[in-house]
Specification:
about 70 residues, two-stranded antiparallel sheet, about 60% helix
């Protein structure tokens, strides 16, 4: 019984630790916006992955596509 409880706790901790990363990986930018890779990479290097995940999920790296700048 203790073995099953220990395995369950390890799996639960693993899921909780990786949840923000999984949610961030699956987030799509809204139509008319693009991902600001320069700002995202700068924050990833200087502030770390957890800060990047939180900002990405809040949409802080979405920038509006200008008509002049359209690809």
């Amino acid at each position: 019984m203790e073995l099953l409880l220990t395995i369950g706790m390890i799996i639960g901790a693993y899921i909780l630790c990786h949840l923000d990363g999984w949610r961030s990986d699956n987030r799509m930018t809204p139509p008319g916006y693009e991902h600001d890779y320069n700002k995202a990479n700068y924050d990833l290097v200087t502030k770390g992955k957890q800060y990047y995940y939180q900002q990405h999920l809040q949409g802080k790296y979405d920038k509006k596509i200008d008509d002049k700048n359209k690809h």
